[in-house]
Amino acid sequence: MSEPNKLLYYFKKWTDLTEAEEAIIMSVFESVVIKKKNEMLVAGQVCSHLYFITKGCLRSYYIDTKGTEHIYQIRMDNNWISDLESFFSQKPSKYHIETLEDSHLLCITHERMEQLLVEVPRLERYFRILFQKAYVNALNRLNATMWKTAIDRYNDMIQEHPEVFQRVPLVYIASYLGITPESLSRIRRQK
Amino acid sequence: MSEPNKLLYYFKKWTDLTEAEEAIIMSVFESVVIKKKNEMLVAGQVCSHLYFITKGCLRSYYIDTKGTEHIYQIRMDNNWISDLESFFSQKPSKYHIETLEDSHLLCITHERMEQLLVEVPRLERYFRILFQKAYVNALNRLNATMWKTAIDRYNDMIQEHPEVFQRVPLVYIASYLGITPESLSRIRRQK
DNA sequence: CCTATTTCTTACCATAGGTTAAGTGTGCGG
DNA sequence: CCGCACACTTAACCTATGGTAAGAAATAGG
């Protein structure tokens, strides 16, 4: 399956599309391949693109006042990544986005995205469902972070996202779980 | 402004609506007044309605294995509340929803909501933007919970939602901030 | 194949926040 | 206007996780 076709497949899971609409979509997404360790977005910049990952791995993080990185998203194949706040408002981002592997991405600029949603309003439904699910997930993660122990969150992650452990260094996973790499080591030892 | 009109006002901030569409919306939302301390949703039940709060205050929370309540949402005037996961999947909820004040709500059932989104597809845009913003907020809150101190989260909340402190007991605010009431007391003393 | 760098672990002490338990207001229903 | 439930505070002690520093193991590049 070609890459834009993969994207159409996911769109059509949640909304109907005519052939004309599919053609519009194919024309506005640009396919790129990005090398590992590439900074796609740097804090202070406006987030120019929304990315669909057909293959690869990226992380979103921010850097606090002490200069420490804090990862809040790790995304792999067939997922979207961006800083939605900056992308849709076109204001400077607080976050960074970086490739953790060589990655195949489909990208769209803010201008083209807004235009696309007007030309193919049925995509609003797809993104409504996408953001709705993302929101529900974020709330579940928030509750886990507030009220479960680091041990439980680690176990949950092994259950739900075992692939990540195969592809991402533990330092990043520790940060994603909200703990230090040292604490993650301690947790892993005690099992 | 009548209550359903208030809702139309918010819809029209983010999407266009014809008079016919407005009429459909007016007909599917039911207006109710609920007394304080009413359990709108209990864990194990399917979340039957999506609520728009025209006036009042509600909280969402869950009860852990030890029987302790953990609040993750406090919502007031002109906001939506529901358990979206249960509402859209029509599977049993993990959460509770309760009124903290006598509240005026506009409610819609799952069946009517799905129908409404088909009959007035332009509402998909409204909810896409609503969930997108809610998702961005949830991620910001997640980052604050993971990486800021309780003191900073307390100060942020006073800055951003001072109204809540006028209307909601501190026990609930403490839980929302992810700390115990005792810790919140400690923080308030040290200022 | 060897070296440099990255990744991961261990051990120490420090600390934010949880736990428990007791107390002081304060407002509302009878 | 009394009493009781609710809201909030205080204090002493405890624990999970952080910070720091060092070293071991694994991986990548020359």
From TrEMBL, chains A, B:
Its ancestry begins with:
Bacteria, Pseudomonadati, Bacteroidota, Bacteroidia, Marinilabiliales
Question: Which domain of life does this protein belong to?
Answer: Bacteria
Q: What is this protein called?
A: CRP-like cAMP-binding protein
In this chain the Cyclic nucleotide-binding domain maps to 13-134
Which SUPFAM superfamilies does this UniProt record tie to the protein?
cAMP-binding domain-like
Organism annotation: Breznakibacter xylanolyticus
